[in-house]
Backbone:
């Protein structure tokens, strides 16, 4: 069951400048940063609020580390802006299978590694009314990441 907005993914050219905008303008704080080689991004997670399912909602600011990455290609075509939304679930495997059975293309056979040790998969934007949609199961709170 999808129980929260886990994050909104925002593509930017310069992560440091974009972080500076979000911290200075709104007062949000950087909760976590990492490089995800597989996804081809350098990213910052800004925690906005905790949620009633024990999770949280974040902004995920994304700078491509390769031009041929998903975010790099998207930025070249569209410029900066909202790249995807992510719904949180306790069971990404089960929800991806159930959504796939409804005819929506799930991009990965098995969930891959996302921010902070989470497990993620994506739904094709062409099957979701133009919205690239991610499903996320967070790592256990005490897990190494
Ligand atoms: N939102 C909405 N539509 C999108 C999109 C996006 N983010 N990215 C691509 N599209 C659309 C394109 O506009 C294009 O539409 P048209 O054919 O009408 O022009 C179509 O999808 C195909 O796009 P493309 O530029 O040819 O790109 P690809 O098919 O090579 O890749 C996708 C698209 C969704 C398969 C790829 O971006 C992907 O695998 N995404 C999942 C991984 C990802 O986004 N990782 C970065 C974030 C990591 C994280 O959140 O942790
Ligand atoms: Co994301």
Residues:
């Amino acid at each position: 069951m999808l129980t929260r907005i886990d994050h909104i993914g925002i593509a930017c050219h310069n992560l440091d400048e974009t972080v500076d905008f979000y911290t200075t303008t709104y007062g949000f704080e950087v909760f976590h940063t990492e490089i995800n080689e597989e996804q081809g991004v350098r990213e910052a997670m800004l925690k906005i609020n905790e949620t009633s399912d024990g999770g949280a909602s974040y902004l995920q600011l994304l700078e491509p580390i390769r031009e041929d990455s998903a975010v790099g290609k998207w930025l070249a075509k569209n410029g900066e802006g909202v790249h995807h939304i992510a719904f949180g679930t306790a069971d990404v495997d089960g929800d991806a299978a159930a959504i796939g059975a409804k005819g929506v293309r799930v991009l990965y056979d098995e969930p891959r590694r996302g921010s902070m040790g989470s497990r993620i998969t994506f739904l094709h934007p062409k099957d979701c009314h133009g919205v690239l949609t991610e499903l996320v199961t967070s790592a256990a709170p005490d897990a190494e990441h």
